[in-house]
Task: inverse folding
């Protein structure tokens, strides 16, 4: 057994939440170690395409944003966490910009976009009553994680790649995190621990024989480790399906077609070409409508026999597509399909773990000195998450977790 040096804060997970926590803790003066199962670049956050919500529109406010979150969650979210999420959203955006994220701006917002007073290109996403989705084209998650990772790597924090968490145990000065590494087992001591290892949807999809949008690292064992240590959870059964999973061609299966396609005019159609649901409804409602349409015989079938409906992306203007959907266009066109000229196959695909570890407003779990942020934490979204709020949660509660853990771990 190797015993590594001790740290004030150990962060487990290198997605947007873990990186935000690590940066915040390090900037608060803590000695930080960032542990990740494989490499720092491997995470779900980098795959997030649609965008990040924040109330910048002249007709919008954090209170309206919070109302949309609560309604989309069917009133199951924790109101205090939602209040923090939405009220701190604008400052989180400015923080990300300070770290180097360049959100899409323009003077003319195109046919289906709105421009805020600050010049942000804002889209209206599913479940929202206002245009508040900021984007970096359709690679928003990639831009955010890169900026956070570059910031952390430029600081004094330590990186622990190829460290798979296996157990957590209390110690005299905080916690001991036990890892499997390529060199064998290793214990790392920390005054506080931040768990930001994401959800379990990749592993869950394999169990169910379904497709998933998730990175293969999303296997959920860190949630189990925390519960084994005594942490409380909520809504763990509430897994979310992305309404628009790629269904064909095979190279696109499991791809999450950006929901901004619908924000910029795309609609869902059945085999008869009829619109059958509100394409800008909450995720669970849109996913359920697609499943019902197929079950009742009004769906279509992909060339390899999978169930699907049509996503009519021909309604998207070339201007909007060039600004906000360039990556999607490249991927489909490389497969011989032009989404601006033909309908594409889509079907819900397993995407997100809505529930998780119970946290306080400072992101502390029910275990003193153990914090959680991002997909592994529950309450902020309730049983149904709006698009654009996952990256926001990572930034808002990642910062909160990092600051609180630094204070706890350095005490």
Result:
């Amino acid at each position: 057994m190797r015993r590594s040096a001790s740290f004030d804060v150990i962060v487990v997970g290198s997605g947007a939440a873990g990186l935000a926590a690590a940066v915040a803790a390090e900037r608060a003066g803590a000695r930080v170690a960032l542990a990740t199962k494989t490499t720092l670049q491997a995470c779900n956050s980098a795959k997030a395409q649609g965008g990040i919500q924040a109330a910048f529109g002249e007709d919008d406010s954090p209170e309206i944003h919070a109302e949309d979150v609560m309604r989309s969650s069917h009133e199951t979210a924790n109101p205090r966490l939602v209040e923090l999420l939405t009220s701190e959203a604008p400052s989180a955006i400015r923080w990300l910009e300070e770290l180097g994220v360049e959100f899409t701006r323009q003077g003319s917002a195109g046919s289906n976009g709105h421009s805020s007073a600050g010049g942000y290109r804002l889209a209206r996403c599913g479940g929202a009553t206002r245009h508040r989705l900021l984007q970096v084209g359709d690679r928003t998650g990639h831009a955010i994680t890169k900026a956070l990772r570059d910031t952390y790597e430029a600081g004094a924090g330590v990186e622990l790649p190829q460290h798979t968490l296996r157990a957590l145990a209390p110690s005299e000065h905080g916690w001991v995190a036990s890892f499997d590494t390529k060199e064998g087992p290793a214990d790392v001591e920390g005054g506080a621990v931040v768990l930001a290892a994401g959800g379990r949807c990749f592993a869950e999809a394999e169990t169910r024989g379904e497709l998933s949008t998730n990175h293969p690292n999303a296997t959920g064992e860190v949630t189990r480790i925390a519960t084994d240590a005594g942490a409380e959870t909520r809504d763990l059964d509430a897994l979310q399906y992305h309404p628009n999973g790629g269904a064909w061609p095979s190279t696109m299966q499991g791809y999450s077609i950006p929901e901004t396609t619908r924000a910029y005019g795309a609609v869902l159609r059945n085999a008869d070409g009829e619109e059958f649901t509100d394409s800008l409804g909450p995720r669970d409602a849109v996913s359920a409508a697609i499943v019902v349409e197929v079950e009742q015989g009004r769906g279509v079938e992909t060339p390899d026999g999978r169930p699907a409906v049509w996503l009519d992306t021909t309604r998207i203007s070339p201007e909007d597509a060039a600004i906000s959907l360039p990556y999607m266009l490249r991927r489909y066109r490389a497969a011989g399909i032009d989404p601006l000229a033909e309908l594409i196959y889509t079907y819900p695909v397993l995407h997100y773990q809505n529930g998780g570890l119970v946290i306080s407003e400072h992101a502390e779990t029910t275990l003193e000195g153990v914090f959680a942020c991002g997909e592994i934490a529950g309450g902020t979204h309730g049983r149904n998450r709006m698009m654009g709020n996952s990256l926001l949660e990572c930034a808002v509660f990642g910062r909160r977790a990092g600051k609180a853990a630094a204070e706890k771990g350095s005490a």
Remarks:
- The mean pLDDT is 95.
